[in-house]
Amino acid sequence: MQTEAFSELFPLLTAANPETLEWLLSVAVEHEYPANRAVLMEDAWGNAVYFVVSGWVKVRRLSGHGEEVVTLAILGRGDFFGEMAILDESPRSTDVIALSGVKLISISAQRFIQTLFKDPQLHHRMLQLMVRRLRQTNLRFQLRHQPPAVKLANTLVSLGENYGQDSLHGTEIFNIPYKDLADVTDIGVEETTKIMDKLNSKGWIKMDATSQTIHLINLKQLMHLASKT
Fold first, then answer.
1. What three-state secondary structure class fits 19?
2. Distance in angstroms (rounded) separating the CA atoms of residues 163 and 173
3. How many domains does the structure of the chain reveal?
4. Distance, CA of 128 to CA of 174 (rounded, Å)
5. How is residue 12 annotated by DSSP?
6. How far is CA 102 from each of CA 30, 38, 105, 151, 176, rounded to the nearest angstrom?
């Protein structure tokens, strides 16, 4: 991968200088995982930051006494994970599972920390993206009392804006299992099923089981629904 393509793919790296990009590429390790494979396990010590080149993953943790697995986030192309365990030098509190076939690039903890110290622009960009994630968490908290349809529309719009790919049928995202979609939206699976069926019947979305995709056909209407707070 060329340095220009590297920086264009990952928002974290847009502010990095060319020397930083070349160094990161030189020490990066490529990985490929099939769907449903564990990429990172809970309680493993953080030893690398991972960048999603293609595909989709879910971040999850055990709830309560290990009786229930809850999906906390869904990440796609251009995002990264594993940075928190590196920055606070503690075991990971979550694990990461491939939702689809996924290609990743990893950079070891030591080398990534060295790079942050050497490149102030990258350091600042890292802080910006972590604040953005915190704001997204706050938004989910603010939406907790909103109707399920509003909350689910927010999730779909967020996934489309962050990871969606343009297609002939609108913005295309992965056909995320309803259990994971329900978890990150903080609603029930039955509610998720009913709302998705209704959005499909309205023609706002189109689900393609063959290609494992959801097409957000009418993103404008979804955004309007998401804004009804």
1. helix
2. 7
3. 2
4. 26
5. G
6. 11, 11, 10, 27, 14
- Structure tokens belonging to residue 168: 């002939």
Q: What does the alpha-carbon distance between residue 49 and residue 46 come to, in Å, rounded to a whole number?
A: 8
Range of the domain at 112: 3-141
Q: How far is CA 177 from CA 36, 48, 109, in A?
A: 12, 28, 32
pTM for this prediction: 0.88
Q: Is 145 helix (H, G, I), strand (E, B) or coil?
A: coil
- Tell me: the pLDDT tens digits for 118-175? 888 888 888 888 888 888 888 888 888 899 999 999 999 999 999 999 988 889 999 9
- The residues of the chain scoring below 70 in pLDDT are 42-45, 62-67, 88-93, 229
- Same-domain status, 26 and 127: yes
